[in-house]
TrEMBL record:
Residues 1-30, 321-363 are annotated as: Disordered. This is Glutathione S-transferase family protein. It comes from Streptomyces platensis. Keywords: Oxidoreductase. The gene is yqjG. The active site is at C66 (nucleophile), Y197 (proton donor/acceptor). Glutathione binds at W99. One of its GO terms (cellular component) is cytoplasm. The keyword Membrane does not apply.
């Protein structure tokens, strides 16, 4: 069932509400506060919320610009759910009707037949008053939004969709490590994933200072933690790594400048930089990243903090592909499993979004 919006103070839900709500009015004077997901139904093996796990029934709508949606794209790929859950990629630029399918022929999602993600929200709840956000999972037969609960979607991919995982899929949320994973993820969420937004959309100095301090204190701790261990928890990839990665991969390209998170660049912290490159070069991570979408979304949509909409040409992203040497720490990326195969051709990131598209390629 839809959940009441809690904690939305009328500011941007993540500051990415599209041009109209991104203006100065939306920034308000209250501190940045993330709104809670409105639709929190779960797709489960037993179908207790009315949405059973079923191959081919659901469509994941994601923006490659969005860190929260990118979690779902990575986890879907690591688990080999590509054939079970189809993927729609939105235009990185919202307009005042929010996320749209302008990248698709005729401006319509070819499976759902809609032009705006809002249509799936409306199909679920008439005159839905809240913001439209990605990631969103839509029930294809009815065209209705099922969930936009970004915190739960990936956990359910890992634990409820197991019957449809590929052979050799990793266990991204292993039972014996859940307590530790949850603790690590809580700190990463508060200070890093959401922390960069708190800094970037701060409307006062003390709010910004606090977010900046918490962010870099946490990054220092993470750097220390990762000094002699390849992954955040245990010796394999878990959900915790996915969640940290989606912020780190955006760090130098957008958060360092656009969100004023500039005590250091990721590339200046040897441990975090090597860790992030290691993940980037692991099948399922970097092959989902579109730097063009990331940069253009943040710098062009957030007109409140970048009124000119000019997108910086740098940084040089080709260094994401340089050696990281983290394999010397051991670790078993996929545990007893195997890496995912190649990206399905229809889902390949275009050359413009890849790191080898150097500065000469433009912004
Ligand atoms: N606030 C979302 C979390 C995901 C999120 O913030 N996604 C952003 C993109 S990175 C979004 O779609 N924002 C839409 C908007 O601000 O209108 C939720 O409550 O589920």
């Amino acid at each position: 069932m839809p959940q009441p919006d809690a904690g939305n103070n009328g500011g941007p839900t993540d500051g990415a509400s599209g041009a109209t709500t991104e203006g100065n009015v939306a920034y308000g004077r209250k501190p940045f506060k993330r709104s809670k997901s409105h639709f929190a139904d779960r797709i489960t093996a037993d179908g207790r919320d009315g949405w059973p796990v079923e191959a081919g029934r659901y469509r994941l709508v994601a923006s490659r610009a969005c860190p929260w949606a990118s979690r779902a794209v990575i986890s879907r790929r690591l688990l080999g759910l590509e054939d079970a859950i189809s993927l729609a990629i939105t235009d990185p630029l919202q307009d005042d009707r929010s996320w749209r399918f302008t990248l698709d022929p005729g401006g319509r999602d070819p499976v759902l037949g809609i032009r705006f993600l809002r249509e799936a929200y409306d199909a679920r709840e008439t005159d839905y008053p809240g913001g439209v956000s990605v990631p969103a999972i839509v029930d294809v037969p009815s065209g209705q939004l099922v969930t936009n609960d970004f915190q739960q979607i990936t956990l359910d991919f890992a634990t409820e969709w197991t019957a449809l995982h590929r052979p050799g899929a990793p266990d991204l949320y292993p039972e014996p490590l859940r307590e530790e994973i949850d603790i690590v993820m809580a700190g990463v969420y508060r200070d890093v994933n959401n922390g960069v937004y708190r800094a970037g959309f701060a409307t006062g100095q003390s709010e910004y200072d606090a977010a900046f301090r918490d962010l870099f204190r946490r990054l220092d701790l993470l750097s220390e933690r990762l000094l002699d261990r390849r992954y955040l928890v245990g010796d394999t990839l878990t959900e915790a790594d996915i969640r940290l990665f989606t912020t780190l991969v955006r760090f130098d390209a957008v958060y360092h400048g656009h969100f004023k998170c500039n005590r250091f660049k990721l590339a200046e912290d040897p441990v975090l930089w090597a860790y992030a490159k290691d993940l980037f070069q692991t099948p399922g991570f970097g092959d989902t990243v579109d730097f063009h979408h990331i940069k253009h979304h943040y710098y062009r949509v957030h007109t409140g903090i970048n009124p000119t909409g000019v997108v910086p040409a740098g940084p040089d992203l080709s260094s994401w592909l340089t050696p990281h040497h983290r394999e010397e720490l051991g670790g078993r990326p996929f545990g007893d499993g195997t890496p995912p195969g190649p990206v399905p051709p229809a889902e390949e990131v275009p050359p413009s979004g890849r790191p080898e598209h150097l500065l000469t390629g433009g912004s």
